[in-house]
Amino acid sequence: MRKSHPLRRVVLATAATVSGIVLLLSLKPSSDPGSAQAAGSGTGAAAAAQEAAQGGAGAPVTGTMTGDAVQTQYGAVQVRITVVANKIMKAEAVQAPKGGTSDQKTALAVPKLNAQVVAKQSPDIDTVSGATYTSEGYKKSLQSAIDKANASAGSGSGSSQGSGSAQAGGAFTGSAVQTQYGTVQVRITVTGGKITKAEAVQAPKGGTSDQKTQLSVPKLNQEAVAKGSADIDSVSGATYTSEGYKKSLQSALDQAKAKGGSASGSGSAGAASGAAQAKTVTGAVQQTQYGAVQVRITVAGGKITKAEAVQAPKGGTSDQKTQLSVPKLNQEAVAKGSADIDSVSGATYTSEGYKKSLQSALDQAGG
User: Fold this and answer.
1) Maximal CA-CA distance, the chain
2) pLDDT by residue (tens digit) across 182-225?
3) What is the rounded radius of gyration, in angstroms, for the C-alpha atoms of the chain?
4) What's the pLDDT at 220?
5) CA-CA to 22 of 20 to 30 Å: which in 8, 41, 283, 296?
């Protein structure tokens, strides 16, 4: 048998090795367009999720929403936000504690809180050191304003402007606004997109306030109906009452506009889905002889499924009365689905405040 030459074997082995390397290189996977597309869609999904968290894709909210007035140990705090395409562009405190050291604390805290809201786009903001009560009140009122914006987004309201004429039909109760001489709260009736009636359900009283209220409120009511907006003149000699009236009127208009957007949805299917969607609405703060009362309701399918008092009188005998009355009032609100509920014996003031705040929440919900 003939033997192979050693040099020939070396040449053949080298050729085989080179051929193998070339083959391996030719099998190297190229970039996969499908994988790149999947990665791109993942980024888009994350952006869509972020957009939905801010207000929902396809239904951008634009407008001005005024939160409820929240009572603190040093005075009322109320926040208004301006939203453009689902983003909070501006936050401001339309009410804040004043007088004495409160002026300094308000001047210190409010600008910082406003800036945080715009930066974080949520009520999860830090309390300002040295102004704890103001900060907590601010955050509660801010949450209320965001709730209104979310309700507008969920109902499909594309735009909710803060000024101008009302859009939806029904009765709407504005937030209770604290003035130097007492609380002012306005309720409006809207028909065919116009204010047909305005009334002050709360106004300063006692002493000279009675005369000023009788002088100013009828004029303010007439102007609200005539102009169809909160851009009305203050009544001479009743400046504080007039300013409180206008703020509460604007709050009522904000609610009417939010509902107006939902009423103008597309078709009955949209209305059905809106009715089935659960939403939470917080009523206006009601001041009673023993403390503030504020009610929050959850509405689903056009019915109240939950009612709770987020504020109620406390301290001394008020604790016992609150524990006695609030659970009963909550149950009645759910059972009757309206503010036409019975007062609890022994807790008349709390019951009356509860019913007024409940009615305010129902007005916002469109009930």
Assistant:
1) 133
2) 889 898 888 878 888 999 988 998 889 899 999 999 999 999 99
3) 30
4) 95
5) 8
Q: Rounded to whole angstroms, how far apart are CA atoms 288 and 316?
A: 15
The CA distance from 28 to 23, in Å, is: 9
Residue 239 CB: number of other CB atoms within 10 A?
14
Report how far residue 331's alpha carbon sits from residue 325's, in angstroms, rounded to the nearest whole number.
Answer: 10
Other CB atoms closer than 10 Å to residue 108's CB: what's the count? 14
DSSP E strands in the chain: the ranges are 63-66, 70-72, 75-84, 87-95, 170-173, 177-179, 182-191, 194-202, 279-282, 286-288, 291-300, 303-311
pLDDT > 90: what percent of the chain? 28
* Helices of type H across 228-309: 239-263, 267-276
Distance of CA 9 to the CA centre of its chain: 85
Contact 61, 157 (CB under 8 A): yes
Q: Distance between CA atoms of 134 and 76, rounded to whole angstroms?
A: 8
User: Tokens for 261?
Assistant: 């957007």
The per-residue pLDDT for 361 is: 85
Question: In sequence order, what are the residues at sequence separation of 6 or more whose Cβ sits closer than 8 angstroms to the Cβ of residue 132?
Answer: none
* Contact call for residues 147 and 123 (beta carbons, < 8 A): no
Q: Which among 163, 179, 333, 183 is positioned nearest to 252, based on CA atoms?
A: 163
Q: What is the pLDDT of residues 135-176, one digit of tens each?
A: 999 999 999 888 888 776 655 444 334 444 445 577 888 888
Phi, psi (rounded to 5 degrees) for 53? -65, -30
DSSP label at residue 202? E
Instruction: Read off the pLDDT of residues 4-14 as tens digits, 9 standing for 90 and up.
Output: 566 666 556 66
- What is the model's pTM? 0.40
Q: Which long-range contacts (CB under 8 A, 24 or more apart) does 197-202 make?
A: 197/221, 197/225, 198/224, 198/225, 198/249, 200/245, 201/173, 201/356, 202/176
Residue 279, CA distances (Å) to 155, 202, 361 in order: 10, 27, 11
8 Å CB contact between 307 and 333? yes
